[in-house]
Amino acid sequence: MTSPRERRSPARAALVALRPRQWLKNLLLFGGIIFAGEVGDPRLWLWALAAFVAYCAASSAAYLVNDLRDVEADRLHPVKQRRPIARGELPVRSAIVLAGVLLFGALVVVALLGPPSFACLLCFAGLQTAYSLCLKHVVCVDVLVIATLFVIRAAAGAIAVDVRISPWLLVCTGLLALFLALGKRRAELALVRDDRAPGRRVLEGYSAALLNRLLILVAGAATVAYVLYTLTARDSYSLVVTVPFVVFGLGRYLQLLRRSDAGEEPENVLLGDRPILVTVAVWAAICAAILVEG
Prior knowledge:
Elements: H1 10-17, H2 31-35, H3 42-69, H4 71-74, H5 92-113, H6 115-133, H7 141-161, H8 167-193, H9 208-232, H10 243-259, H11 266-272, H12 274-293
Helix pairs in contact: 3-5, 3-6, 3-7, 5-6, 6-7, 7-8, 8-9, 9-10, 10-12
């Protein structure tokens, strides 16, 4: 428990428990409209925005469920103990109600986008729940589920605006997500090894050597998949010039993993490392210029 001076207000605690920084992952829902070259249609942007809001709500509902299930373990963790439910700032009853409201609201929004969008969100929410309840404890399956959730986001964005998305782009999305998930596990393993945090059960099935090999393997596969995407994507062959930025970004992330535990929170690397920020910004600008021109 925390002292009154340190306690956050109920509204602030609820907001923190929703993990708004994690909503960055849902920006993938705009990938369909961008990579299909339909950026000039405001109607499609409205649909994509609706899908983005729905997935942010569904994601936050899943985080609340996860924190409710892991509250006792979180209280023993040097970082996770600051979560509002673990600190007693957000009552269990309030967290349950909030999760239910968010999920219901998300389903209502995607229902307006059509049955395929509704089905996508049901799959997303179901897989998130399964991950929180049991799949996160299964070696290799845990990181594969995380990657699959990213693929669902990317596909859902294209479905919401009814545009075609390259299968290779979905493969790239899954491999990049798998790369980040493996990096997170490696960072968590480093914390356990240094006795700085109790480890999650699944870490018993991993080793630093295994994760290092998998990271290099997946980084290479992601690069190959991205190259194939740039060479096969309709009206965007010029995207091949962006390959060096992808290679640098992956290499930079590996470098950060080697020298720190930055990968435990991948979004912190994206927001806090200047070389990666610049690389992503330049990559996005070049892609936008090529796709709009195309």
